[in-house]
Structure formats: C-alpha cells, structure tokens
From TrEMBL:
One of the GO BP terms on file: negative regulation of DNA-templated transcription
Gene3D superfamilies reported for this sequence: Metal-sensitive repressor, helix protomer
Pfam families attached to this UniProt entry: Trns_repr_metal (PF02583)
Record's keyword annotation contains DNA-binding: yes
Family matches, as CDD domains: CsoR-like_DUF156 (cd10148)
Protein name as catalogued: DNA-binding transcriptional regulator, FrmR family
PANTHER family for this protein: COPPER-SENSING TRANSCRIPTIONAL REPRESSOR RICR, TRANSCRIPTIONAL REPRESSOR FRMR-RELATED
Keyword annotations: DNA-binding
Organism: Clostridium collagenovorans DSM 3089
C-alpha cells in the first residue's frame, strides 16, 4: 500500500504531465491560428474575394474560441478542484459543457 506522500507525488507528476500536454496543444493551435491570420493578410493584400476572407476570419474566431475554452477548462480544473471546498467533478464538467455550448 502506498503512503500518502507517494500518492501526492504521483498525482502531482500526473498533473504536471497533463499541463505539459495542454500547453503543447495550445501552442500548436496558436501557431495554426497565426498561419491562418497571415493567410488572411495575404488575401487582403492580394484583393482576395471578400466572402473567402470572411470565411477565414470566421475560422480564426472559432479557433480562438476553442483556445479560450481549453484555457478555461484548465483553469477551472486547476482552481476548482485543488481548493479544499472543491466543486464535484460532475458539476465542473456540466459548467464546462455549458460554456462550450455557449461559445459555439
């Protein structure tokens, strides 16, 4: 049977790995968005079709919303579950899914 210190260490290591994965995912998303924005710049400079530009702007907005949702979810999980008066995971999941629905 593991003692409490070992359990806490395992949980912290697992949490750190998840944080690294989330950060990596966010950076990949942000770089993709940066590429999309540069593409929009080129379209504008080249007098591209307004409709096509608006489609790309909409895609960037949606991608940024997704980044925001991931950040919010990470914040909520970290802040609300580490507190001694933490919110039950089921309620937290409900809050997050409601936010997701709202941002679509």
């Amino acid at each position: 049977m593991m003692d409490e210190n070992k359990v806490n260490t395992v949980v912290e290591e697992d949490s750190n790995e998840k944080l690294k994965e989330v950060n990596k995912d966010l950076l990949v998303r942000l770089r993709r968005i940066e590429g999309q924005v540069k593409g929009i710049e080129r379209m504008v400079e080249g007098n591209g079709c307004c409709r096509d530009i608006l489609v790309q702007v909409s895609a960037v907005k949606a991608a940024m919303n997704k980044v925001g949702v991931i950040m919010f979810k990470n914040y909520a999980n970290k802040c609300f579950t580490e507190d001694e008066k933490c919110i039950p995971v089921e309620k937290l999941d409900e809050i997050i899914s409601t936010l997701l629905m709202f941002t679509k």
